[in-house]
Amino acid sequence: MSLGDEHGHGDPARADEGLYAGGGQTRTRLPERSTDPYGGARRGPRSSSRSLITVVAVVVLLVAAIAFANRGGGSSSSADSGGHGNDPKAAATAPTGKRPVTTKTGGIPSGFAHDEQGVQSAAANYSVALGSAEMFVTAQRHRIVNNVYAPDVAARRQADLDRAYSDEKFLSNIGLDKDGTAPAGQTFVSRVVPVGTKVTSLSGDRAGVEVWYTSLFGLSGEASTNPVSESWYTTTYQLTWVDNDWKITDFQQKDGPVPVGRDQRASTADDMTKAVEEYGGFTYAR
Questions:
Q1: Residue 80 included in any domain
Q2: Fewer CB atoms < 10 Å away: N or C end of the chain?
Q3: pLDDT tens profile 27-74
């Protein structure tokens, strides 16, 4: 199997399981009869009855959510009188309230705490760096790898990544020039947005963390044949505590969970390019 085939529709790499997902093989729903990859021919508006049903459903869900939330703020008398005081309580995934790290090394957040919050924050921030467009530029890729991987792993991973990211067939398949740059008049988009994290193991200086995220990948521009699309993945990172920080030693990636897409109009090429250029990323913390 060639590297281009293995990557599917622009996945920036699974070669040796060492590269990071940028595209994937989730299907992109485009408007019918459209010759514009960004949806120049728009779908007609939904029927008024369907819109009304949707609005009513949303309102009902909001009312139910508010009622449920208010139940948690009352006294315990209702539970006692109803005889359900020993029922299991739902535990929401919530931030710890601690501030994100303020230090950076090589432009990447660093100095994470030696605890559950710290390792989750490290995994989330490292996933953003590994899924960025900077991974397609040799010097920037080396900087990222040297800062997120453990020292004894970085050199070996560097060689794997260099081979994959320099493959001209792969770069051509996703619409990039042989040096990893976008054609004139187009903007290359590769961005990871973490949705949530979960510690799967934590023992002393070693930890496992799952990061669920959405990935934007493609070329924004009127002439693009690979428009920016959205994919969903979960990556399980293995990290170790070294030099007073968490560093990656290995990871495995899988598709999903993938939410149901809404019936929204695709943005124009200009809007997508403007958004990518104007909206920056975040420093993540639990």
A1: no
A2: N
A3: 434 444 444 444 443 334 444 444 444 444 444 444 444 343 434 444
